[in-house]
Design goal:
This protein is mainly alpha-helical. It has one domain. 68% of the residues lie in helices and 0% in strands. It is globular, with a radius of gyration of 16 Å. It starts with a helix and ends in a 7-residue tail after the last helix. It is found in: Cell inner membrane. It is a multi-pass membrane protein. This is Alkane mono-oxygenase.
Length: 146
């Protein structure tokens, strides 16, 4: 939830720190989707991060994770297209976030060996699950008309 709060700040440093925190969970697309997708579509059927009334967390979780990834990529691709850049470019904030995660994980594997990989995967799953649990609880059953 630290990344979530930092991502809402106006300070450039705090927004960059949000991206660094998300890198630990390989969840960098969250910054884009949350700020530019979720805030627009919150509590509507278009928002993958708003839990439907009666929906269990375990049904919500994959919908939010994969729906958020799809939405974030769409948002970032559209931004780059408006600027005349291809979606798959170094200017893509999601590509940058994934690169940061890959560098972090690569460094840790280099320092500690492959035996750290299960722990990295476990903390990735835990980080994503905790962040999405907050989304689930904060938006459960909310519905608004656009």
């Amino acid at each position: 939830n630290t990344a979530h709060e930092l991502g809402h700040k106006s300070s450039r440093l705090e927004r960059r720190l949000a991206k660094i925190v998300l890198a630990q969970s390989f969840y960098g697309h969250f910054y884009i989707e949350h700020n530019y997708g979720h805030h627009v579509n919150v509590a509507t059927p278009r928002d993958p991060a708003s839990a439907r009334f009666g929906e269990s967390f375990w049904i919500f979780l994959p919908r939010s994770v994969f729906g958020g990834l799809k939405s974030g990529w769409r948002i970032e691709s559209a931004r780059l297209r408006r600027q005349g850049s291809p979606a798959l470019s170094p200017r893509n904030n999601i590509v940058q976030a994934w690169s940061l995660s890959a560098a972090l994980f690569g460094t840790l594997i280099t320092l500690f060996g492959w035996q750290i990989l299960p722990w990295l995967l476990l903390q990735t799953l835990a980080g994503i699950t905790f962040l999405e649990a907050a989304n689930y609880l904060e938006h459960y059953g909310l519905l608004r008309v656009r």
